[in-house]
Amino acid sequence: MIANVPMEHGLILAALLFALGLIGVLARRNIVFMLMSVEIMLNAVGLAFVVAGARWGQVDGQVMFIFILTMAAAEVSVGLALVLQMHHSFKTLDADAVSKMRG
Amino acid sequence: MNLLFYLSAVVAAISTLLVITRTSAVHALLYLIVSLLSVALIFFSLGAPFVAMLEVLIYAGAIMVLFVFVIMMLNLGGEAAEQETQWLNPGIWKGPSILCVLLAIELVCTFTMEPERLSAAIMVTPKQVGIALLGPYVLGVELASMLLLAGLVGAYHLGRPHKHRSKIEQRS
Q: Any idea what DSSP says for residue B6?
């Protein structure tokens, strides 16, 4: 008894979540919120993969979701370490405060 | 199951919208956890219980715990105690709790169905996913392990305090 919703509805939901994440990245300047929005976007992409995999009854969508999960875990650990370093040396979480490179 | 999908989709959309409009990081984190849990229920309704489990364990569990730790570490100032009392204020738990209770009701309704219908809800079993991962996708698994190792080393290197740099600065 699997939900027999049309694939378009699942993909619309994935697109909606991705758009919300993108708005979050573009509109917020606090770097923790930007990381959270990136997580939302990665999750939406994984949702699209699983919806497409469920449409055809194949495992490939879920395998791709597991890879996305791995990538998100690695990304967020490095990103949060960078946030800690940024707070340590600049005493701020504003992304605009560190927009200049030294070099 | 259709109802499960659409209800979870509505909860996911609302909670994600609330994530990107909060001003406090902890409030946003609570809504983000609700959003991830509702996406896990969507996976379950689509006949993918294995990735639903992974979503709860890794996204809503491990990654969100990382976020919580970092937010706690960033608030080490004098206003930390005041902030703690502010977090214990029941008002901020209301929104996430309502959405969570909605998800829990959905889950209970699903699991009190007849067992035959429940076992028919699994389209792709974990066994099939495992066979595919270690069969045609084994190169991807190796690459993922190397990515995780790189992430581990990178996070350790970046998270280290600047001992060497200050020593060099003192000498010069």
A: H
A101: contact with B, CB 8 A cutoff: no
Asked if A49 and A61 count as a contact pair (C-beta separation under 8 A), the reply is yes
- pTM score of the predicted model: 0.85
If you ran DSSP here, which 8-state letter would residue A98 be given?
G
- Whether chain A has a CB inside 8 Å of the CB on B59: the answer is yes
Q: Give me the percent of chain B exceeding a pLDDT of 70.
A: 78
Residue A100: alpha-carbon gap to chain centroid: 25
Torsion of CA B105, B107, B110, B111, to 10 degrees: -110
Cβ distance A62 to B129 less than 8 Å, yes or no, reads yes
Phi-psi region of A91 (alpha: psi -120 to 50; beta: other; left: phi over 0): left
pLDDT at A81 > cutoff 60: yes
Is B35:B19 a contact under the CB 8 Å cutoff? Answer: yes
Q: So what's the pLDDT on residue B99?
A: 85
Q: Decide if A43 and B63 are in contact by the 8 Å CB cutoff.
A: no
User: How far is B43 from B55, CA to CA, in rounded Å?
Assistant: 9
Using a CB-CB distance cutoff of 8 angstroms, which residues of chain B are in contact with residue A72?
Answer: 59, 63
Q: Name which of B41, B132, B118 is nearest A62 in CA terms.
A: B132
In the DSSP assignment, the letter for residue A30 is B
